[in-house]
Amino acid sequence: MTVSREVELEGHIIDSGMMQSCFGIIMDLGGSFSVQEFDIGRHKDEESYARMLVEADDEDQLQSIVHELHQHGVNPSDPKDATLVPAPDDQVVPHGFYSTTNHPTYIRHDGEWIEVEDMEMDCAVVVEDGDSPRAYTKVLNAIEEGDLVVTDETGIKVQPPERPRDSGGAFGFMQGGVSSERPSESTIRKIANAIEETKKEGGKVMAVCGPALIHSGAREDLARLVREGYVDMLSAGNGFAVHDIERDIYGTSLGMDTESLDHPRHGHKHHIYTISEVIREGGIEEAVESGTIESGVMYECIDNDRPFVLAGSIRDDGPLPDTITDAVEAQNAIREQAHEADMVLMLSTLLHSVAVGNCLPSTTRVVCVDINPATVTQLLDRGSAQAVGMVTDIGTFVPILAEQLLSED
Amino acid sequence: MTVSREVELEGHIIDSGMMQSCFGIIMDLGGSFSVQEFDIGRHKDEESYARMLVEADDEDQLQSIVHELHQHGVNPSDPKDATLVPAPDDQVVPHGFYSTTNHPTYIRHDGEWIEVEDMEMDCAVVVEDGDSPRAYTKVLNAIEEGDLVVTDETGIKVQPPERPRDSGGAFGFMQGGVSSERPSESTIRKIANAIEETKKEGGKVMAVCGPALIHSGAREDLARLVREGYVDMLSAGNGFAVHDIERDIYGTSLGMDTESLDHPRHGHKHHIYTISEVIREGGIEEAVESGTIESGVMYECIDNDRPFVLAGSIRDDGPLPDTITDAVEAQNAIREQAHEADMVLMLSTLLHSVAVGNCLPSTTRVVCVDINPATVTQLLDRGSAQAVGMVTDIGTFVPILAEQLLSED
Amino acid sequence: MTVSREVELEGHIIDSGMMQSCFGIIMDLGGSFSVQEFDIGRHKDEESYARMLVEADDEDQLQSIVHELHQHGVNPSDPKDATLVPAPDDQVVPHGFYSTTNHPTYIRHDGEWIEVEDMEMDCAVVVEDGDSPRAYTKVLNAIEEGDLVVTDETGIKVQPPERPRDSGGAFGFMQGGVSSERPSESTIRKIANAIEETKKEGGKVMAVCGPALIHSGAREDLARLVREGYVDMLSAGNGFAVHDIERDIYGTSLGMDTESLDHPRHGHKHHIYTISEVIREGGIEEAVESGTIESGVMYECIDNDRPFVLAGSIRDDGPLPDTITDAVEAQNAIREQAHEADMVLMLSTLLHSVAVGNCLPSTTRVVCVDINPATVTQLLDRGSAQAVGMVTDIGTFVPILAEQLLSED
Amino acid sequence: MTVSREVELEGHIIDSGMMQSCFGIIMDLGGSFSVQEFDIGRHKDEESYARMLVEADDEDQLQSIVHELHQHGVNPSDPKDATLVPAPDDQVVPHGFYSTTNHPTYIRHDGEWIEVEDMEMDCAVVVEDGDSPRAYTKVLNAIEEGDLVVTDETGIKVQPPERPRDSGGAFGFMQGGVSSERPSESTIRKIANAIEETKKEGGKVMAVCGPALIHSGAREDLARLVREGYVDMLSAGNGFAVHDIERDIYGTSLGMDTESLDHPRHGHKHHIYTISEVIREGGIEEAVESGTIESGVMYECIDNDRPFVLAGSIRDDGPLPDTITDAVEAQNAIREQAHEADMVLMLSTLLHSVAVGNCLPSTTRVVCVDINPATVTQLLDRGSAQAVGMVTDIGTFVPILAEQLLSED
């Protein structure tokens, strides 16, 4: 026996690859299809529309196909209201709850499509009933008993952003995925343009930074970008802040003078001493106020009111009093920041970039920079449609970026 | 004006490279030396002894040189008692506190040398006075007001383990650092021998595991090693446990059937559903008891009473109820485990391997396995003298290791 | 003023991504299009057909678009005969000559479509007129004065192979590109199946090998695969052969005993001595016949009449008398071998794999194995539609592959 | 029965690690030793001297130990004349011939020590008898019947360069091996200083370049360095020259405009067309003279009389008429260039860097730059004592280097 369901796609479904993905999903999962209607956009600006019948051997297989199609923006053509089931307990979701993608999503409720707020992947969707009903994402551990959680696949519409191929503007270049083989200086110029465009539009730029940025000598230039307002928010770990402050207090990063390259052996002592000094003061802000910290990225954040989140990890020394040691609390702080960002620079850190990336909707512009191609690929695979990757040395990237941004003023 | 201090070295100081390091440190830091006495071991089994005067331009430079020499096992020849200063507040160490290496260390107290317990790097040393005085390490955030903390460099003796070059036995091969260019199967055989020798000596083997181990299909073989007692303890993250359990409940890892390679698109849903199921049960042990989890690495840990630590991170989904989300708590749990381990296998995880490595004395045997040479190098650089690295595919490494260990029984 | 040309696509043009590529090319190059006719395959087995008008600002732009479309299998809908221009001199092609892809290609001559023989990319196409006209590729340096060379874009049809998604059989898994995150043992089993299927169909398997294969201890297992007929041809460099023979004569590879891991210091002397011994004998075959070489990959090639090509490079020591030192001659030898191969295993060598890959039509099955993901990606990007990549350790890959192939007999 | 030989070491034998290596070699190879005399330098500028008796179980083992010690600068204390045996045939060396290191080497002949000319590793040493006898290296394939070849280990003295730790000057920083974790801009400044110092001393700088340099947009800056005389010689492959010239003729590199990043799809056609154009002209010099090539690295080489070697490889398209296709001929051309270089910049090419590195004595200054740490490590391991490595993006490295060199004028 065969079961089937009718689905439809619309938009730039060929150009964006959606149609191809759709065919691929059905066949990979062992189903088949028949195309019922197909209106192709005749010109490059016209949208296309397709309606097709998906067939599978049994209901399980069909659901699995329809689920996958969903994630890629293919929706059932006979929309019903979403199924809502109350959460049986705190942190416990109903069976078969709908797990989100990071794409803009709509829930059908009382015959109306409501946009889901705070889009983020791997969350449940909770609907608040009432006169003006709302839908928003909740991570599993934030679910409260009685929350009305969307289950199954019906009444849900996902809209993956399309990649308009010939878009002009600074973000045009951001359509191409990893640009490891692209000319380095020209690519950095494009990224500088994208930052400027974001700022002109009143957007916020967030930098996610790993300690390699300090070791590679890019600290002073990042500090200038913070001071001059090209970086509005910072997300990093304990290590980044300690290395940055060590350079201020002791003139070294992990014991090496990053200017003269002298004395590479002073070593770890400065690192742990730096932590101890900041603990003694009570925190980074206190240490800035007392004059213990007089320069650097963290200094500029404090001095210019750029909010920062320092998330703890099990490899931290110390940690600093500012570091949020609980992973769930840290995720919440990261989430709040991420939802405000219009453009995110991920600078030589896998852990923090993944954590931030997990909280971003697919509509946020992302630039990933790392010297390890595997890191860049891994970050881009998580899937912002507006993400671009660059494989380069962070120690030369930041100075060139800063020169292009700051000399253009 | 010149200042100077007399230091001495003993042991296999040439063969182990200690003498060379010592000369290098002095010159790198701008000092000079004159050798006062030098007795070289005439035969390969004899130890050598050197006494020399280190000279520097000022006291600061001298201290910095003597500090570095210390870390490498060069000690002042005129030992005095260690300087003890009470901690001024909780989590606040006295100025100039001594920050530990991971080598066996002794503190001179009332004219006697006391061995420091729980050696671990980047800690303070606290001395407990009394009839039988003790000295032990404390991480910064565990310091309590009034703790007697060792400061400065006097009265401290560090003994980096030597690498006896022609040592026989299974660990002989472990002297060579990264073995990325060594024959793969033969190297795995050596590692198998080292595990067997550790078990025969009554030692404990700890496995530190990343999620790639599950994705690459090595789960069943690792589960067998846990069941058969070749792995006594497990240290991992939330992701590892979720992937392992997903394979049990849904037959997939991140949505792919690791046997048939079928259905590569089921995707993320299984991952988040797995977490939800375990939360519903209350934890992994409960899920094993209820029959929800029937196989795999976590199952074998529960079924065979092998303790495990799941440390949280900011990139976790969920997390599982068993995951310790606070980084400091998680470090304490890792620390306790690490101090009990006699041999540690670090299997395709950088974050957790660094966290465990931070807690290990340099005398613990360590094997690092990763397909990324940079990861192996970074782990070995942290410096266990008994560490060996292997650049290989974890998905073929674990099966071949398991076959060699289990077929030999 | 606008210029335009009508083109058509047929086959699985959506599923294979051809339609998406086509839209992308037109827009990337600044053109536009209008779709004139579109018949979509209603079921997964049905082919589709599209006819569209490509528009550009001027003839140059149009030609550049049509050229690119060509490479992806989009052909003008009003075919004319190909333009033939005689080569003005040896090694000199006419202006505007057609440079080939590696896809099956047809030339229209006297109103008939002739298939181009010996397809290979970056070549010229030469037509031999006469009663039964032929068309074949020639590399630039083989062009002779007067050769009739195809120029411009007219009268040429390219057919990139489609990736039939639900193909059964052993090669089904080969549709997925790089499988670095796939389960290792299961993937090797699939590759073993594909080799067996190739052999059953009477096909020939070619191994392209780098010296790392010997260093990593996989020599004996590859030698068995040659002996048992799973490898029919070998393509390698001077270094591979020398390391293989060194292991036979001196029991070492670059001075290390690959079994016992003993004596890692004997060093380079064995390498250069091995070369000297083979030169003394006059070549590998002579050294096998005289009993100087008694085992290994090269031995089995000689003993079982498996043809091999040893191509020289500027980093070679020696070289051996069997090594072809001229790059053009070596390419010709590689070309001849490559055209006979039905399946190619590229084993841990970038240089030789690229050289062989350059000579392969896109219809040949290719498996690339390397521990460096960048190497695998680079090889797959060159574009066999039937290529699959695996990121793993060659030193564990070959033994597991050999066990699966040889124990199944 | 035990056999023994007396050997001696002198110089900075502890600081340079020679003493440690020596002890290690003896023990690794199963021998033992007794130190007969040891005079340690009391101050950092004083040299040390050691004389010791090496013991082994049999003559074979002893020879193997003494051979290894040799390579590291430990010489027998009872020097005899070197053993000379005539080569039995062209390209055939006598049994037991001495295979060279890349260190300065002396041959004892008629009681006198003669320095070996053209030092290079893996060669034979040929002595020309007569009134003023000479000794020089010959690669195996250059040996002629009757050449007097040095065999065995007697009468040979090797002097590995020491690494004077506190050397001032621009090359001081070059003592530290791979500097992947060093601050990028500061390290580039040090390299710029080293180039300037080399030029001031009247030395010659050679650049070894891979095609990635062009793709990454660094072409114009390298061309300026050639024009301004900071690069005196170029060693590259066919691909580098073609990409460089393609950029001049078509404004693209592999089809991409490296300035605007536009039109990434024009593709391979430009590459093969470029080759065809240069073949048509007869060569690069002819194409420069005719005005076909008007800018770029190759143009500046021709225009400023900077000699270049283009060495062929089996992956070349074309090749250009200037490319030396025979590997042995190409090696000879590289060898000649390499022997004239005082400083070598190896820029993002493994193949050509290894080929050049093979011809360099260990006294030539070498800087290796690549984004892949494995490439840098592999090059440094070949062992110039004055080699320094940097892991960075060639596309940002060359512009920053050029700016530092050219703006300082």
UniProtKB/TrEMBL annotation, chains A, B, C, D:
Enzyme class, UniProt record, top EC level: lyase
Cofactor section: NAD(+)
UniProt keyword Lyase present: yes
Keywords: Lyase, NAD, Nucleotide-binding
Known EC number: 4.3.1.12
Record field: catalytic activity: L-ornithine = L-proline + NH4(+)
Domain Arginine dihydrolase ArgZ/ArgE-like C-terminal second subdomain residues, every copy: 190-401
Start and end residues of each Arginine dihydrolase ArgZ/ArgE-like C-terminal first subdomain domain: 104-188
InterPro entries reported in the protein's UniProt record: ArgZ/ArgE-like, ArgZ/ArgE-like_C_1st, ArgZ/ArgE-like_C_2nd, LOR/SDH_bifunc_enz_cons_dom
Domain LOR/SDH bifunctional enzyme conserved: residue ranges: 4-103
Keyword Lyase: yes
A molecular function (GO) term: nucleotide binding
Free-text function comment from the UniProt entry: Catalyzes the conversion of ornithine to proline, with the release of ammonia.
Family named by the database record: Belongs to the AgrE/ArgZ ornithine cyclodeaminase family.
Name of the protein in its database record: Ornithine cyclodeaminase
Organism classification: Archaea, Methanobacteriati, Methanobacteriota, Stenosarchaea group, Halobacteria
